[in-house]
Design brief:
By secondary structure, chain A is α/β, with parallel strands linked by helices. Chain A has 12 helices and 12 strands. In chain B, strand 6, helix 5 and strand 7 form a beta-alpha-beta unit. The chains are: A alpha/beta, B alpha/beta.
Amino acid sequence: MGGVKSIPSPAISTDERSHEVDHPSSQVAHFGTEQPLRLDCGVDLTPFQIAYQTYGELNADRSNAVLICHALTGDQHVANVHPVTGKPGWWETLVGPGRPIDPKNYFIICSNVIGGCMGSTGPASINPATGKVWGLDFPVITIPDMVRAQAMLIDRLGIDTLFAVVGGSMGGMQVLQWTAAYPARVYSALAIACATRHSAQNIAFHELGRQAVMADPDWHGGGYADQGIHPHRGLAVARMAAHITYLSDAALHRKFGRRMQDRELPTFSFDADFQVESYLRYQGSSFVERFDANSYLYLTRAMDYFDIAADHGGVLAKAFADIKTRFCVVSFTSDWLFPTSESRALVHALNASSARVSFAEIETDRGHDAFLLDVPEFFDISRAFLQSAGKARGLTAKDG
Amino acid sequence: MSVQEVLPLSGVTTRSSGEYRADHVLVADMVKPGSKVLDVGCGEGDLLQLLETRGIDGRGIELSREGVNRCVAKGLAVVQGDADTDLINYPDDAFDYVILSQTLQATRQPRVVLENLLRIGRRAIVSFPNFGFWKMRLQLLIGGHMPRTENLPATWYDTANIHFCTIKDFVQLCDEINVKMERSVALDLYGRPVPLNLPWWVWNMFGEQAVFLLSRGGGK
């Protein structure tokens, strides 16, 4: 059998995925019509729900809550087995027993963002007005909208001030938005591999991904849910392109080089001769098992619109004027999606605001993805930053 | 490796008195409790840690990535940055004190850096190795080669220190840019203060390093 092997169809049925959308394997906070979510686009989203996971116990004075913000394709399952894929939590390197963010010390909260597809209201959810899936009728959301929704969840949990807000990439954007919008509610902020605005290059990559989704005939102008299908191929191509941006030339070379996949010689076809091709195809096909195509459009759009300075008269430092939050900013040398220069611009603005900030650039060849991987120096820094903040906050850490 | 990457780790080491370096203790003694301090070129954060034990809100800038990461891993508020290019990002009067410990001689523009220190901070504390120290003079005069000491062991071609000065030179610069010297201490080879009652030229001869507490001079 020669010829072209197309991207395999997902092993999980669409039904199983949509079950997580409406009835997530998580706790759910429902917000009725008396508590609408005011979106930046001018629409009130109501009713809506937020799916979230918690780990550890809230202490008596409610001062040990840590909010984890997930990245573009993450979800609330930060430190438990994923209900769809069966894989470990996406940030178990950082969050969990014995880790820098240990449920023994902190009450850890992670919620699925608004616009997501793992139980918080998004384009894959049912529009109560029509009884059908929202699809493209779902209002366009922004990073500030996501954070506004999280603040409503935090209110619901009876927490006034978060001890820490932590996130990487799109999660890092949410961390920064938290500090800009609710400075008094964030005691410390750990912003990793992120930026205060999405660069032109990053918007360009997102547009590529969205066009790949929209070019799939199964997308049906966003109305695929009504047809009982899902634009797997378009979404997989979007994921493949994005995945390249999460790595680095050096990491790809180290991992795959020009090595062949289960063969000695080229097949003179468009089959996945190279290991790197096979790897990318796998990344694409496994992603579509757990992610909704329209959700991908909405969340990438939210990142594109993100620009904290623009919301503060074009002066970034104004976003953080007189802020008391303790910041730790971390970047990785080989991250070309959110390069160190972006973190440095943030640090300069924080310095101009006389904020208390630590900034470390970590040497690694693993690209943007490094924040999710086993990078001991990053864990040491995260642990020390949170311990030092905890000491200042009067939290008593239980070591071990 | 860029010029300053070796600093201040191998720039200057001073004999320690007890747990902390003598010049660090001297600097820390000049800082009023409860103040807000920026340590420029904070190395691995030893001085910041000492200041923290005294309840002082300290921040740091350090050029070398290793130094920064070690500081952050100690829970210190330190950012990666360059004294020559990054001080400009700090607003006026952001700190009570800005400290430049054994780093002035490694900056490209010491005068601009000094001016920035006293713009950002209401006071500045500057320490530097004194090139007028008798051992230095003797090496040039008798040996005919660029001076090297236990504390400044690098050869002329690989030293990070590109702008050496003597105590006399530094005092002259302060006068030129209208900087007021509130306190000054010279330390001898053993980290002991050179007696106060001796004239300037003795300091310039027997001070192995000097520490100055500076503030903005009145308008001319």
